Amino acid sequence: MIKVGVFGAQGRMGSEVVKAVEGAADTELVAGVDTAEEREAVRGADVVVDFTHPDAVMDNLRWLIENRVHAVVGTTGFDDARLARVRELLAANPGANVLIAPNFGIAAVLMMSFAAKAAPYFESAEIIELHHPNKADAPSGTASRTAELVAAARERAGSAPMPDATTAEVPGARGAEVAGVRVHALRITGMIAHQEVVFGTHGETLRIRHDSMNRESFMPGVLLGVRRVADLPDRLTLGLEPLLGLD
Ligand SMILES: NC(=O)c1ccc[n+]([C@@H]2O[C@H](COP(=O)([O-])OP(=O)(O)OC[C@H]3O[C@@H](n4cnc5c(N)ncnc54)[C@H](O)[C@@H]3O)[C@@H](O)[C@H]2O)c1
Ligand SMILES: O=C(O)C1=N[C@H](C(=O)O)CCC1
């Protein structure tokens, strides 16, 4: 039995994780912790899953790493500075591995992988992400990672800069730029998590779309992370790709 704790247990994702951990045959819930509750409640857990808030996750990670508890992190908002801090904490404290994935949906991971594969074949690539309006961060972690993967694939292929004649712009009309790729974030009541990567070249376009219809959709990926995090070859793993044989 893998002993699991959940940070953000009262939240939209955390409450699904609690159900998934309780429902799986090989995992056992030690405790769910939410705001203002004591992290000590998860002591004894082999793995803690964090779906909290970008403002909370770094201190949670520090606590887990210092206490040698493996971490499976779905909370978004990671940038290079945050990742450098996590590496620093891991270097100073033996014992715990960390898996941070911006999206635990298996189909979402495939969508990112397919987008990276397609990227060198098109002049233009832009990303539209659509989420529920309670989301704190924009653009989404998934969109940022997709932009980075697309940019890296284009760079490896020696792609020319994307054409764009815009000289007059209402601020924001062309979206945000992440690794040189335009990202457009929509916040729409009734939606959960959706993304379309739009590619174009002369006479042809390709749109790669992913839709999460509910939050259960993330649970197979979360449980995969819980089962594998302790044995991952690197102390810090980014994305579910290596666990799916995709990188
Ligand atoms: N990686 C993925 O597949 C994936 C999927 C969905 C959401 N997310 C991300 O997960 C995060 C949470 O999303 P959500 O929709 O569940 O949000 P939510 O607001 O519904 O839930 C977050 C919960 O965390 C709690 N919380 C805040 N600070 C805390 C702390 N210090 N300790 C313990 N609990 C704390 C809040 O009270 C809340 O109950 C966001 O960053 C979101 O982008 C990632
Ligand atoms: O609901 C959210 O918030 C989600 N966040 C992740 C992101 O930022 O990419 C994944 C999808 C759901």
UniProtKB/TrEMBL annotation:
For this UniProt record, the keywords arranged alphabetically read as follows:
Amino-acid biosynthesis, Cytoplasm, Diaminopimelate biosynthesis, Lysine biosynthesis, NAD, NADP, Oxidoreductase
Q: Which reaction does it catalyse?
A: (S)-2,3,4,5-tetrahydrodipicolinate + NAD(+) + H2O = (2S,4S)-4-hydroxy-2,3,4,5-tetrahydrodipicolinate + NADH + H(+); (S)-2,3,4,5-tetrahydrodipicolinate + NADP(+) + H2O = (2S,4S)-4-hydroxy-2,3,4,5-tetrahydrodipicolinate + NADPH + H(+)
Subcellular location(s) of the protein: Cytoplasm
Q: What is this protein called?
A: 4-hydroxy-tetrahydrodipicolinate reductase
Q: Which family does it belong to?
A: Belongs to the DapB family.
**Alphabetized InterPro entries for the sequence:** DapB_C (IPR022663), DapB_N (IPR000846), DapB_N_CS (IPR022664), DHDPR_bac (IPR023940), NAD(P)-bd_dom_sf (IPR036291)
User: What Enzyme Commission number(s) appear in the record?
Assistant: 1.17.1.8
Task: Locate the residues binding NAD(+).
Answer: 8-13, 38, 74-76, 101-104
GO annotation, cellular component aspect = cytosol
Question: For the Dihydrodipicolinate reductase N-terminal domain, which residue ranges apply?
Answer: 2-104
Chain residues that bind (S)-2,3,4,5-tetrahydrodipicolinate:
132, 141-142
Q: Does the keyword Cytoplasm apply?
A: yes
Record keywords: NAD included? yes
Subunit and partners: Homotetramer.
Q: Where does NADP(+) bind?
A: 39
Example GO BP: lysine biosynthetic process via diaminopimelate
SUPFAM superfamilies reported in the protein's UniProt record: Glyceraldehyde-3-phosphate dehydrogenase-like, C-terminal domain, NAD(P)-binding Rossmann-fold domains
Q: What is its main location?
A: cytoplasm
Q: Which domain of life is it from?
A: Bacteria
Single annotated GO MF = NAD binding
Q: Which PANTHER family does the protein's record reference?
A: 4-HYDROXY-TETRAHYDRODIPICOLINATE REDUCTASE 1, CHLOROPLASTIC-RELATED, DIHYDRODIPICOLINATE REDUCTASE
Q: In which pathway does it act?
A: Amino-acid biosynthesis; L-lysine biosynthesis via DAP pathway; (S)-tetrahydrodipicolinate from L-aspartate: step 4/4
Active-site residues (renumbered): 131 (proton donor/acceptor), 135 (proton donor)
